[in-house]
Predict the 3D structure of the following.
Amino acid sequence: MSKILFPFQLNNDIYKEAYIAAVKIARNLNAELILLNAFELDLQDDITEILYHKMIKNKWIEAYNEIVKFNKYFLSTHAKTNDALNVRIDHRFVHGEDIPVVTEIIQKEEIDLLIFPLSSNRKVNRRYMDCVKNEVFNYKTTSVLFLPQEYKYTEIENILFTTDLKELNFNEYYFSEVLNYSNFFDAKIHFVHVNKTGNEIVENSTMKLIDRIIQKDNKHVFKSINANNIVNAIQSYIIQENIQLLSVVKSNLDFFQSFFHSSVSFEIIDSINTPILLMNEKNI
């Protein structure tokens, strides 16, 4: 992994906890962390160039001060060593609307992970999800980490990887990505298949890949759950097994389409109080 994009807004506490997650992931995955603050200005018709640049400078100062607050909070609550903040950081403070700026960066650069903290403002959440669905996942293979409302950072000990057991393009890539998170955080992977039909599982390349991973490290497990409602089944498993990260591949259509369907997406966000990592399917 090379680049993580973390867009943030000013004076909003949800970004303090999200910043901790961003720094921890960037440090553990040896990635560059792009801290993006996109801001808008109230420009009058008679504005001068000098006044415009002064307004830009003031916004930059506000953004830097916000990052200083993030760092102080991080150091006071989660830093265990003096070099805990030793992360490659790229500060970007840009005049423009947040979603178009995020979209432009992702389309022009190789961004591996985009971090979106969700808030109680459902209108903002919908803009974020529409951006991911219509812009990010249509053009790039960027993964997206949604952090739930009232998120508090905890160390990742258990990762839930949902799979429909289909033989995907670049299947080994997805499993490798999840294994990276597992290795860096020393976390257990729960490979979970929600069986809506009750039919016997067919041995295929995906199942064989899971078997190889478990044979190599038996702390990882595979479970098949018979259930009609995927979201409820996943939610129950998260609670039972104390899951800190839920990972889903776009091609797991039942869950992925439910996540973005307007009628149930907020039900999922509200009910699953766990970070959700959405991985876009790679094309051949």
Summary: The mean pLDDT is 83. The radius of gyration is 20 Å. The first helix runs from residue 14 to 28. Residues 158-279 form a domain with the Rossmann fold fold (CATH 3.40.50.620).
